[in-house]
Amino acid sequence: MGSTGSAKGSKTTILSIDGGGIRGIIPGTILAFLESKLQELDGPNARIADYSDIVAGTSTGGLITTILAAPFMEGKPMPAKHIPNFYIEHGPKIFPQISRSKFFNSIASSLGKVIGPKYDGKYLRTLRNQLLGDISVKETLTNVVIPTFDIKLLQPVIFSTSDGKENVLKNARLADICISTSAAPTYFPAHYFETKDTGNGGTRSFDLIDGGVAANNPTLVAISHLSKEIVKYSREMLVLSLGTGAAKKHSNYSARRASRWGLFDWIFEDGKTPIIDVYSDASSDLVDFHVSTLFQCSGCKDNYL
Known about the structure:
single chain; globular
């Protein structure tokens, strides 16, 4: 991978991280290993952000993106080796499990799984605010791109370092962006916040949910974000796109079963949420198809991993 702010004509490096909830521990483990190898080459202070022109992440990938790019420790990002432990330590509190006996003994809990989000998101909000404070997106140490979706406007809202620098009303707190891109429907509450332009007195409101409904795999969003720069300087791209694995090789869904499903079954079926699984997997796979085709047609398929 190249270095941030790479010279004209050199490779533009993109790191992309899919959504996937608790399975974010998988790309987190890969990145921890990658950073350790970079440190063997360039010293203990080397960070993934030093080698990435842009880091893009959706949902849990957005959380990892901020860990890799936000100025946590003496102006440097948190070491990637902390990411797996982050999931091990905080995952059970972000995704608390309810015992079967308590679930069936509590009518309120049972109804809550149907008429409200599965998790209240309080711990995640508190954790993000504690870690990131008032750090805004324009302050990241390399360019970041984090997709969300505005349910009031019914359109994607993409937060990026460059937009934050150019537009005060898009310079949101990283904590708010992380909570928003992680707000998966049926799992976590939607997130509302406002940004203000104190100079002009303007405000902008956001009503956001998980960016995975539009771009669970943010690779194409990242490429589009840099397309002007790539064309202008005739740069070659080098892309590392990390998924979050899958719970099983094949789902238990089938056309025979789904043909009998109504609204409730698509939202809650055998402890899963089929409609969310379908949208997120379709989004990720379609992006991979497009990007693979792009690189193959460009004669540089080895530049896309």
